[in-house]
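Input sequence (300 aa), recorded before submission:
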Amino acid sequence: MILGYSAEFENNTSWRFVDAAYTFPNPSNPWSSGFPEVVNINNLSGQLAGANFIAIKVGDVNLTSRVNNGFSDDPLRSMQKELSIAVLDKQLPFNQIQEIPFYLPEGVIAEGYQFTLQYHTEDIEIIDVVPGLSQSDQFGHFPALGILTTSWYRREGDMSHYPMFSLQVKSKRRDQVTIRDVLKLNSRVTPAEAYDSDGLLMQPVLLFTEEKPTDGYAMLPVVPNPFRSAATVRLVSPKATQGKLVFYYSDGSLLRTTLIQLVEGLNTIPIDKADFPAGLIYCKFVHPDFQAIRKMIVLE
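Predicted structure, token format:
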């Protein structure tokens, strides 16, 4: 729904109505039993009193919906500040594929964001979306419309110096053009908003830059997660070096240790379900200069 793949809730309606006089037997789980949504009146004559309903907007988890299908003017939800999404502003040579990384600038803290990226299909083609701190299921891509949507939330251990994601872009234009000329951030499908560590609403904006953030060590989310057959541990290293992956059971007891050789940049280490029991497993990267841990769930 947020990413634009679906325009309506399955097996539900946009609004539900509950008899205002009704008391839910279990307020913490209102769906545990049916509730009255209609009042039947036979042979009505004159005015009807006491037939009141409470309207519930399905999916409105942050109370921003309005009956005219717009957004709330509540000043408490006004954008308090901007969240810059740094974009490496590369030249886009004709018919060549360039990988464009998107970062949160160093020191910028956000708990989550969502927005729409829009481009003209006659200018560029997005060949692929490369996951970073954002995972592949946090994107929606509609190539025919020139629309890319994303929704991300912070996980423990996320590092701002590693890309949130990257776009592999091929230019269709023969003149000199950079990514800032062909890509816009807006709310066409997914409303553009972000939240800081205090829960205040921020306005996401693109910050085009010619400088790539300094890379350090980083441990990215395991993908896919959960997994049933195989997965990949992703590590970023500023140099060629050695380290180790230590896997723990959910109770903290040691499961196994694997020595690994890292190259400069992104490293992908495959892991096989056959080496792990089903359930929650902790994967820890250990290096003299850096340590980080990620959770992974192994399915039966």
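Checked by second reader. The longest strand covers residues 201-209.
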